[in-house]
Specification:
The protein has 223 residues and is an alpha/beta fold. The protein has a single domain (6-218), classed as 4-Layer Sandwich (CNF1/YfiH-like putative cysteine hydrolases), CATH 3.60.140. The chain has five helices and eleven strands. It has a six-stranded mixed β-sheet. It has a five-stranded mixed β-sheet with strand order 1-2-11-6-3, covered by helices on one side. A hairpin with a 5-residue loop joins strand 7 (105-111) and strand 8 (117-122).
């Protein structure tokens, strides 16, 4: 089975100690089923795609994703999703943070000095609960990273007119209010391009999940 298409973002590609990708719809995989079955069908081809994108050999760490605002610090590989969490932070090189979305936004946060990274699942509820500002705060509290040292990138997500609220714009506002000036939004709507993206709303829940990946490749000490 062929690897899935994927995209990267200039804001993150400019950081040499970072690997980041957003895996799009896998055209060879039938996902018109329940979530669990779709995820099982997608796993091997998404893993193959990740390996070809440079994540080969890296363990994936995932979050339970309950549409909340809990941020979990990850220091080592884990076989189960971080319980109750919708965001992950780490300072461990070679550990790949992974978040699944299908209209909600995957939000990448990276320190410009390679001290730590975060990957967050932020849809309507998570945005209302301020999960991105919580991730910014967690990076400061756990790793001493000032908001001014962060780069933030918002991946494709659902937007008006396909959704009643532009939560991506609210994420940008919240991030800037928290002190981050280097904030980027790709501006792409998942529901507008069914050839590239899964959309929970457009496909009425019988669909797959896009996969956001983020990893440090170089310790801050050698930067």
């Amino acid at each position: 089975m062929s690897p899935c298409p994927a995209e990267t973002f200039p804001s993150l590609a400019a950081l040499p100690f970072l690997r980041a990708a957003f895996i799009q719809r896998c055209p060879d995989v039938d996902v018109r089923t329940d979530r669990e079955t779709a995820m099982q069908r997608l796993w091997s081809v998404q893993r193959k795609t990740a390996d070809e994108l440079g994540f080969c050999g890296m363990p994936f760490v995932t979050a339970e994703q309950v549409h909340g605002n809990i941020i979990a610090q990850i220091d080592a590989p884990a076989s189960l999703p971080a319980p109750g969490a919708d965001g992950l932070i780490t300072s461990t090189p070679g550990l790949c943070l992974a978040i699944y979305v299908a209209d909600c936004a995957a939000v990448f946060l990276a320190d410009k000095h390679a001290r730590a990274i975060a990957l967050v699942h932020s849809g309507k509820k998570g945005t209302e609960l301020g999960i991105v500002p919580k991730a910014i705060h967690a990076l400061r509290e756990n790793f001493g990273i000032a908001p001014a040292d962060l780069v933030i990138q918002i991946a494709p997500c659902i937007r008006p007119p396909h959704y009643e609220w532009d939560f991506a714009a609210e994420i940008v506002r919240q991030a800037r209010a928290a002190g981050v000036s280097d904030v980027h939004d790709c501006g792409t709507c998942t529901a507008s391009d069914p050839e590239k993206y899964y959309s929970y709303r457009r496909e009425k829940g019988r669909t797959g999940r896009l996969l956001a990946l983020l990893a440090l490749t170089t310790p801050a000490s050698v930067m």
